[in-house]
Amino acid sequence: MHLINSNFMISVTNSWFFANLLSNQLEQPNLKDFVRSDDNSFDLVLIESFLQEYTVALGHKFSAPVVNLSPSMVWVSASKWLHLPAIFSYVPDCCIGITDDMSFVDRLKNTIVGLMEMVVEDYLYIPMMKTKMSKHFAYTGWQSRPTLEQMLNNVSLTLMNAHHAVGVCRPYLPGVIEVGGMHIKEPKPLPKDLQDYIDSASHGVIFFSFGSIINLSNLPKEKLNSFLNVISRLKQKVIMKWVPDKSIKLPHNVKVGSWLPQNDILAHSNVKLFITHGGLHSIEEAVYYGKPVIGIPFFADQRSNMKVVEKNGYGKLITYNELTEESFGNAVEEVITNPTFKDKSMIQSQVYRDQPMKPLDRAVYWIEYVIRNDGAKYLKSDSIGLNTAQYFLFDITLFLFLLTVIIAWLVYCGTVKISSKCITN
């Protein structure tokens, strides 16, 4: 039994790498000048604290409330800074590839990983962020700055890139607002070559994109050939976000491009399937436009995102290790030919779209709300003052355990004493 899978360990390693990479950007002269300058003032500071928690110091610098953008379903360790209940029994960590429908082993894994994250967060990660904050945020008045933990606890509002139609249902406090799909805009007209290509596909089009980070050319040859061999046998046309080497012979039914308007392509009614790496923005767009999905996740939250897709019945997950020509071909055939996937994707789309206001409008409303109400401090719970032992009632549990032991011991001693008297008499 693998309590901690490689996907989680890779995610932790990548997080450490990207945290250092992001902090290196603070060496840019324009950013250094901005931090040190006393010429600016702001009513509110909007940050994305993920892997760069030190940016919360800008709220102190400008004496302004802070609104945090969370790019994904949060890790368990980050829950305390967002004041979210960390409930291991049904709130899964977003990087271990499980949903809220957990078996005993899943709950055990989720608990162990969550507790490990908390230890790493408190004793390794936050101290690293403090060091970076001290190095890069030496502005006028920084000497009176609260601790990093105090500033994170004082964030007025968090805008969460999440929605129950594409993620899991979980409890939130008033200071956390779901705005998943905020990036989705009304589709624009496609370039003429793409429009004609999609319109002319009598059997429909498959859109294939692994986002901005994964380059298909860097995959092992056997993995790449698995894709191309299956695609060459399809009746559908395929649009791929990819710039192949000149030595690669593309199938006759493939059109490639280095950049493609993903949102506008997915909005087209003749697109029958979306093949993706499982990034959250991509899943949100697929759900919004009612497209079935095949996902091959690589790292971070992608596997968990695709697990939710599978659970809700509008797509298939193929792990990288399981990716072969046969597994990929079977998945494409099943999703294309089985109408259940399309039906469930349309149901999910209806759920996603049925909101009282658009996510972007909701985000704007709450940002302005924080400004109007002087930081809206009352949106936070008093749980921010609890340490880990108090939050999880470890102290109460220990007290009750010791009390039970003491009472049991007294009862035992009393019983022995009474028994001794009876025997003596």
From TrEMBL:
Membrane topology: Single-pass type I membrane protein; Single-pass membrane protein
Source organism: Aphis gossypii (Cotton aphid)
Keywords per UniProt: Endoplasmic reticulum, Glycoprotein, Glycosyltransferase, Membrane, Transferase, Transmembrane, Transmembrane helix
Family designation: Belongs to the UDP-glycosyltransferase family.
EC id: 2.4.1.17
Gene3D superfamilies: Glycogen Phosphorylase B
Top-level taxon of origin: Eukaryota
Residue ranges crossing the lipid bilayer per the database entry: 391-412
Gene Ontology cellular-component annotations: endoplasmic reticulum; membrane
Keyword Magnesium assigned: no
Subcellular location as annotated: Endomembrane system; Endoplasmic reticulum; Membrane
GO molecular function terms attached to this record: glucuronosyltransferase activity
Catalytically driven reaction(s): glucuronate acceptor + UDP-alpha-D-glucuronate = acceptor beta-D-glucuronoside + UDP + H(+)
One of the Pfam families matching this protein, by short name: UDPGT
Protein name, as recorded: UDP-glucuronosyltransferase
SUPFAM superfamilies, A to Z: UDP-Glycosyltransferase/glycogen phosphorylase (SSF53756)
PROSITE patterns: UDPGT (PS00375)
